[in-house]
TrEMBL record, chain A:
Listed name of the protein: Leucine/isoleucine/valine transporter permease subunit
Annotated keywords: Cell membrane, Membrane, Transmembrane, Transmembrane helix
Subcellular location, record wording: Cell membrane
Transmembrane segments: 12-33, 45-64, 71-90, 140-163, 170-188, 217-240, 267-287, 293-312, 319-336, 356-376
This protein's record includes keyword Membrane: yes
NCBIfam families reported in the protein's UniProt record: urea_trans_UrtC
Cell membrane is among the record's keywords: yes
TrEMBL record, chain B:
Pfam families recorded: BPD_transp_2 (PF02653)
CDD domains: TM_PBP1_LivH_like
Name of the molecule in the record: High-affinity branched-chain amino acid transport system permease protein LivH
GO biological process: amino acid transport
PANTHER family named in the record: ABC TRANSPORTER PERMEASE PROTEIN, BRANCHED-CHAIN AMINO ACID TRANSPORT SYSTEM PERMEASE PROTEIN LIVH
Family stated for the protein in its record: Belongs to the binding-protein-dependent transport system permease family. LivHM subfamily.
TrEMBL record, chain C:
Signal peptide: 1-21
This protein's UniProt keywords: Signal
InterPro entries: ABC_urea-bd_UrtA, Peripla_BP_I
Superkingdom of source: Bacteria
Native source species: Actibacterium lipolyticum
Protein's UniProt name: Aliphatic amidase expression-regulating protein
PANTHER family: ALIPHATIC AMIDASE EXPRESSION-REGULATING PROTEIN, PTHR47628
Amino acid sequence: MERSFFARNPSTLIFITILAVFTLGVTLLSEGLGVDVISTSMVKTLGKTLCLCLIAIAMDLVWGYCGILSLGHFAFFGLGGYMIGMWLMYERTKAIVVSATAGAPLPPTPQEIRDGIGTQIFGVVGGAEIPPIWYFADSLFAQLALVVLIPGLLALVFGWLAFRSRVTGVYLSILTQAMTLALSLYLFQNDSGLRGNNGLSGLQNLPGAENVPQSLISIYFLWASAAALALGYLLAAWIVGGKFGSVIRGIRDDEARVRFLGYHVEGYKLFVFTVTAIIAAIAGALYYPQAGIINPAEIAPIASIYLAVWVAIGGRGRLYGAVIGAAFVSLVSTWFTGGQAPDIPLGFYTVKWVDWWLVLLGLSFVAVTLFAPKGIGGLFDMLSGRLAPQRHGADLGPDQGSFREKEAEQ
Amino acid sequence: MTRTVILALRAALFWLMAAIAVNAQSPIQDLLQENRAAVEKASRKTIDGVIDELLASGLPQTREVLAKWREKEIWQRKEDGLFFFAKPLPNKNIQLFDIETGDPVGEFDKKAVKQLKPNSGVRSVIATALVRYQLTDPDPRKRAEGLRAIERGPEASHLAALRAAFEGEDDPALLARKQRLERLLTISYDEDSAARVAAIESFTGDLGVDARAALNPLTSTTRKAAAELPTNANIKAVIKPGTARLSRDQAYALLVAAELAPARITAAEKKDALIANIVEGSVAGTPIHTLDTDAARTQAYATLAAAGTVPAEVTAADVDAALAAHVFFDQYDEPDANVTDAAQEALTSISTKVGVNQMFDLALDGLSLASIYFLAAIGLAITFGVMGVINMAHGEFIMMGAYTGYVVQQVIPDYTVSIIVALPLAFAITFAAGVAMERLVIRWLYNRPLETLLATFGISIALQQLAKNIFGTQARPLTSPAWLDGALVFNDVVSISYIRIAIFVLSVIFLFLLLFVLNKTRLGLEVRAVTQNPRMAASMGINPDRINMLTFGLGSGIAGIAGVAIGLYAKVTSELGADYIVQSFMTVVVGGVGNIWGTLLGATMIGSLQKGIEWLNPSNTLAAQTYMIIFIIIFIQFRPKGIIALKGRAAGD
Amino acid sequence: MMKRILSAAVLSAVFAGAADAEIKVGILHSLSGTMAISETTLKDTMLMLIEQQNAKGGLLGEEIVPVVVDPASDWPLFAEKARELITVQDVNVMFGCWTSVSRKSVLPVIEELNGLLFYPVQYEGEESSKNVFYTGAAPNQQAIPATDYFLEELGVEKFALLGTDYVYPRTTNKILEQYLKDKGIAADDIFVNYTPFGHSDWSKIVADVVALGADGKKVGVISTINGDANIGFYKELAAAGISADDIPVVAFSVGEEELSGLDTTNLVGHLAAWNYFQSAESDLNDEFIAAWKAKMGEDRVTNDPMEAHVIGFNMWVQAVEKAGTTDVDAVREAMYGLETPNLTGGTAVMLPNHHLAKPVLIGEIQEDGQFDIISQTEEVAGDAWTDFLAESAVLKSDWKDLDCGMYNTDTSTCVQIKSNY
């Protein structure tokens, strides 16, 4: 231990400071605790953006550092949301049922309360029974544990199967995409017991906090999201900082070589894959109570591809790049699709951003890949003058990175 | 001159008065006017009386009136409520004709008249009534129409009419239909048991839905409970309660329904009884607030029952005794045992055959789905499989092909010609798009496959949104030519639509075309050379840039043609391609990258597997897709390189 | 970047303050994503209605300003946009949503912030929110009459309930199953199948439906298939040569707009049940169609949810004029009992349960993609809680006198004021 963790990672300290200042600033300007400049819906958007930044960090860890282009991390994000959503929904409904039966001539039996909850939750999707997977839904502690356990276990099993049979590169990407598609299709089914297409809703109403206004709840969640993001960033920085980080970067650049050096490549990949899945799940568990509703469309393959887009635009292989990418793209997206961006009249045609935003996003994405593979993060390199050696644009590629470097030197 | 005019006027006046007189006196009009309310608001339930009256009247116009009524060609004049035949004129007015004579009555504004719109239930009742006129009609089409009406709504009276209509039937096809119908009606309506049995036996092994439709009602049973087995009833089987076929609860419910045993007290009734007996905050001495468990409530109820305030609960012993004292059995609704036995036997023979044919049909469906997946994936098999380029915009090329088909149909109204134009045009357009994309984007990224994935994804969302901006979000019609309408029907169980056959043929053509191009032409040789080792190929005088460009164009062009085909069979929307992209990638991966045969096998496996799972769980199609994907994930664990894995140097690594 | 967002927020706050004088109508329909296909039309309808109203001199002397947002078929985004519309844009009323899940997503937000939403699409019922006016059909205004038509008029004895796998078909089919059982149809004679959104491979399901006829009972299909999946379904139906006389299909989600995506020559005679068809004969309808075509193009069609918006908007305008303010509570009080002509020639009445009384129309598909109306009932009062499920039959909704959307008539208590979502 020659230098302290922060001394080795100056960007960590800067990042945490900026995050703290940002959180404080939003709090002071908010409707709930401040001078009411930022509306509650904006606070919620910012809180959700922080959660997206957290899953972007997970994505950067698994893709930018370990070279596994997972197109399925939103599956873990969604599962985390579902796990916490089950408790929120169950408890809120229980409160309603208990208060509704309070005036009845006979006190309700536990079975009657359970039946009442079942009818309330599943009535809209044509059922009344509470499915077995809701077994732990009445316990906050159990569901919080499940937030970590279920996605972690899924990642562990899936990763073990995939890495064991040495599925790599684009095959792995397609396989992870298939996983998230299968999960979303499964959840779309009513029989899955999680209300099918309808998903779980009303999650912003916290049980036991009925009298706390949303303006305050949104601030609390902003704090929680900021804290989770800070911790996630520290964890990620710690993971990539040491020898472990060198090994996974080595795996990214030339997996076979690392294996020949005697490292257990599968174990490293599995660890990174599982840890990032858990980070994603925690991000999801914080995101959906702010969004208010979770349904299977959230984990459709396209969401995970967007995640890769954020990280690529922000700049892979640097943690702050992922955060910047996620925050920038999702906020700009909100701005453009919200109808606030001014139309551009061209005389013969008026460019409406609602219609053209996606075209712009798609094309700018192509442009980033082609002309600025380092993404926005590359700007920081220019500022600090720390330019990487010219490698014909191939420095960050997972496959043949180091191979190319040798070529470049010739 | 003046005289002629006056004469003409007089003639006209006379004619007009005569017309009015006829209107007033026309018996068929009178008959309809008598039943005016029932005719105006025709309902299947109330129309029989009117039709019977019309038929009984024996008026010569009855047939035409019924036929026109069915065709929605009878209109009512609002001012006097009279009924007329009518024909809409080009100037939007309505020309009315008298229903008795068929003479024109005059033109009326659309607002002055009202069309009678019998619903399809009423129309089928009318069609059934018209049968009597049609079976011996000289026009074979009319006779066929009559037979169709009997098939849809058979009645006992049709049996005699059919038998009488055999004679003079010179069309062998119609005669066969008549005979078959006669046998079907014999099963249902003949009085003679032997004739019915003979008719039933003639249908042994018949696959027609109509045959099963006639036989199945004969074997329908009703589950009954009684103190002892009735002697004169046609009983199928005696059932013991407490078995898989009849649980004890079901058996007791049967007894309750037959009022042979007292009903059980439900939890809700118990609760109501307790509430009804609340006295000063307690029930039967138990304070209310303790009644929050089922056990406590049962206890309190038992106390009430002991006091005689409420009926006692049915105990397990009561149930046992009641079940033991009664017999449960399935009784045929058809009293004739000979008939039911014959029907049962015929149905058994049919059901085996139907099972085999259903399997065959399922296999056809699977094959058809496989060919659709193959067609969607085959372009990808070239760009991804052979060149190793991940093209997420492949689905959008399919979509471009489909929209090309739509646009061509807007310009060329003839569906056959437009398809013939659209196929090569779609190829040309997507070929050009593919070449442009390869030149502008992909060639810079050959060393970075993951980034190709992301860049092409960017192109994919841009193209999708562009399609929305240009064509709107509504689905656009892409109609197949008339010769592709309908289905190839083997029998009532096995059939496949022509459009699916066309897609199948198209995918087979492409399979062989590609195999030919890749294996037998110079281009194919060069493609394989460039794919395996671009440098070596270049030093042999092959221009890798050109080859890459052409190969990518070819793969994209095929996607365009696939788009036209898929648009014909499903829908044309901007999301059309996105629906197929993941599936297509999986098809290629499962089949084995770099091999057209592999893609074929992959598509076949995925298509038939999906149909197989659908068959196991017919009420939930989503489940089939989910389990199929899970299967693919597991499959790839065991064969990471797909069904056909390239070996040796061709494998590339 | 943060600075930009903050300044945007400040700016919008300033604008909101300055623009308090005008009346704002929020339009919350997806303009992108899967639902854009249906919802874009409704946005255009609203813009046209607002334009017409402004041409008449606006409302309370003010100009009506539409605020269009795009929730992009993303259900959580519906909640976010609704909150934004109410708190940032300060809209007085919102017209929007299509799918049930989007409505359920918006519900908690508008109940919390006391907003007002007009929901124009036929839906599954079992809900009554204080802040929502349901101008589309409840099950008893569409599904039940259509089923009756099948039972009574067509003599159907065996039912195939085909639906897309989401809330509306699930709940509607649950109600219908119970209703059919009450009518003496055996459980074995009801075949239920759910398919995903955008399903295109229908051959197996169509073959299954044909096979249902094997026991000699007349088969009918009740379709709650949604959106573009219908195109593949009807194409397969036509290819299999199933005529409406053999196996009639009645659809609850297929209107003129959906039919414009396919060739209807082979579908003639199949049915749809709605509260409005473009072919309805009335002067108001002719006017509306003419205005719509003039604005959007000659080939555009009108449909039922558009009529619902027409009724909803006209009622809201009346209510605002009656109340003399756009205040949500005052407008809501003023809504009850209001009457406005509907486009099919009758009168729509707003009931205290926030539903409309509307006629039920059944139409047969014609070759030109229009519907031939073969049955039209009197106005049917929309029922928030269905009478055909035991647990819902005891509930009623009355916001005028009882001030409760979920009132248990057995125990005479209000089960809950807010909705369950």
